[in-house]
Amino acid sequence: MIESTTFTFLKNLSENNNRDWFNSNKEEHDKARTNVLDFVSDLIVELSAIDKEVPENLNAKECVMRIYRDIRFSLDKTPYKTNFGIGISPFGKNFKGPGYYLHIEPGRSFVAGGSWFPEVNELKAIRQEIDYNYSQIEEIIDNDLFRKYFQELDREGALKTAPKGYPSDHPNINLLKLKSFTASHQLTNQELTKPDAAKKVAEGFANLYPLIKFLRNAII
């Protein structure tokens, strides 16, 4: 589970996002990161039983993202993220294609996954798969468990008109308009601080797994 002290550290960091404070509280950061790594190790074991392509022995350090922000091209010069981001795939966080994501931040935690703004060739392949097998993806996103947990696919960045090569009256035009194929579900601090939190997050990922498989098949 995620310790309440991890949320406390992140809250304090958001209020003191500067190097002097961080250096003075480096020990608290290290404790929080260790807690997240332990949690992710448990989560990987749970997820690997659902998605066989995720190795059970995947190192949690390969999944937990750095807390240091890249401020080179950003107007926001605060040096640290105020969350722990976790990307899980067969290759950890450094992957292209479908994967799982867990965001840990006080009051703003969530689970998500899918293909986030895939590159052009992958986007074309996914749209082609939707065109050819639209009944399959409809079955996935209309499943009661998926609907209850995620409601629907995220529509961030969706096109306003039909993509090139597809008619506006295509039976799945709303899916073809998407440029990102992801779903997300908000989590409370309380949910993540329960002893069975890793199992519950994995159950959320289980609802996402059929979509992950569909997307993987599309870009093979």
Task: Walk me through the structure.
The radius of gyration is 19 Å and the shape is globular. β2 and β3 form a beta hairpin. The relative contact order is 0.15. The protein has a four-stranded antiparallel β-sheet. It is of the alpha+beta class and 220 residues long. The mean pLDDT is 95. The chain is 45% helix and 11% strand. The protein has helices at 4-15, 19-24, 26-48, 120-132, 134-141, 144-150, 173-176, 189-192, 197-219, and strands at 84-88, 99-104, 109-115, 181-187. It starts with a helix and ends with a helix. It has one domain. It has nine helices and four strands, in the order αααβββααααβαα.
Q: Could you name the ranges where pLDDT drops below 50 across 5 or more consecutive residues?
A: none
Secondary-structure element order, N to C: HHHEEEHHHHEHH
Count of runs of 4 or more consecutive helical residues:
9
Taking the sheet with the most strands, its summary is: 4 strands, antiparallel
Mean pLDDT: 95
Number of beta-strand segments:
4
Report helical residue fraction. Answer: 40-55%
Strand content: 5-15%
Adjacency order of strands in the biggest sheet: 1-2-3-4
User: What is the CA-based Rg, rounded?
Assistant: 19 Å
* Multimer state: single chain
End-to-end separation: 35 Å
